[in-house]
Prior knowledge:
Oligomer: heterodimer
Largest sheet of chain B: 6 strands, antiparallel
Number of helices of chain A: 6
Helix content of chain B: 10-25%
Order of helices and strands of chain B: HEEEEEHEEHHEEEE
Largest sheet of chain A: 6 strands, antiparallel
Radius of gyration of chain A: 19 Å
Order of helices and strands of chain A: HEEEEHEEHHEEEEEEHH
Number of helices of chain B: 4
Amino acid sequence: MVTELNASLPTTPEEYRQRYVELQRAAQDSAARRPAVAGDIRNPAVVPAEQIVREETIPGGWYWSTRLTRGQTLRIINDDATSGVSALFWNADDTSERYNAADTVKLQWSAAVSRGSMLFSDMGRVLMSVTEDSSAAHDALLGGSTATSNRRRFGDQALRNSRDNFILAIAKHGLGRRDIPPCITFFAPVRTDEAGRFIWRGDAVKPGDFVDLRAEMNVLAALSNCPHPLAPSPRWAAEPVRAIVWRSGEPGPHDLCRHRTDEAVRGFENTDAAFRA
Amino acid sequence: MRRFAREREEIFMSASTSPTVPPLAAEAASYDKVIPAAAPWSRVVRRGQLLRIVDLEGQQAVDTLFYNAHDYAERYSVHDTLLAQGHAYISTGSVLLSNESNVMATITADTCGRHDTSAGACSCEANTVRFGQHTRYMHACRENFLLELTRYGMTKRDVVSNLNFFMNVPILPDGELAIVDGVSQPGDYVEMRAEIDLLCVISNCPQVNNPCNGFRPTPVRVLIWDAPSG
């Protein structure tokens, strides 16, 4: 799957441009063949009880945090098609390393996070792999709600919001406001139109949709179950979501996330190197 | 691109733009400095002052972060900014918001019309993923950010998603996103009014592995004018 690029290193602007064109073309090729790549991930529709490490039902408006050991998977189940679960991830062994929204979209040449995507840290490593995803309706560009967005949207800034939820979640691990980078929001079908305006694809999230996120390092995860500010509902409405941490086993030799793109291979090279004994 | 800038102005009719005034004269600036190619820069821009960033030779990305000069935990927030304006790009009239949803700065002039909000800054580590392991030891924007931020007692924890003036990253409806050739011409500039006392941190992007600097990093110029008296 990995495209071999010209091995000789560029030295002139023209050679740098040529290499960039090759990289972009390879990324577009891999995006084009994405639906055809089956990979070997076949996560169970229902996680067997013996594989569950812990589970939690997060009430509408609330937050939850958990640690994940490298290799464990976090499943978020959206039984009632609630509009948005915002999430942040830190390297639990060094929380200065954390989810980086810009790198996640730039390194994958796409803001469309879905099965086979990775969530990158700011250190060129993979925090989480998206190993299963029933909706492909996530927002990597706009983030989550704030007191201000609730005031604008619903006329009430006292409604619960993701910004404050992250402050609360992370404060309980000894971290603070400086540790909160731009987040990602699952089950929030946000796209841009031709003019660059943000739009909400109304019917993209169905009851029972879920996403599996495999931890690729030891991770501290925080989830906030608050409506995305672009969600069309005229009133603030958040239904409970379920979070399950489960033992998903060793990635197979043809693991989709690890092999789909050249960027994936290099991202995992960087990640695995930190865990080599 | 000019048409693009006009559309932005229409979208931000409600923004507190000042009446049309002739371009400020460089001789009247209280601060005027050329940032060499690939170099970092930082300075406090006081409330009411105008900051202009000039792309001297064209196609030069200027990676920029803002902090509340009195509370560094409050900093530029791409999400608050884009959410409030409902649009993925910024131009004249755009209001730059903080992670506390407060107004930090207002874009008052923009002769380029295209800047990136979502692709962030290059780093040695991200470069390895994007371009190959051989690019690890090339200077990068987050190196510049760290050099400046640590002067103020900040650390890598304080590096967040930044603005990239003059960098062209179209986001397509299917989510596809790539850095493409910049549209800024020599002398194009973007100007903003500080709405609070701002610590402005710039990395004059050293990247040569993608088109953000035309594969040839060049100097940029920053000018600051004092708030009109009275």
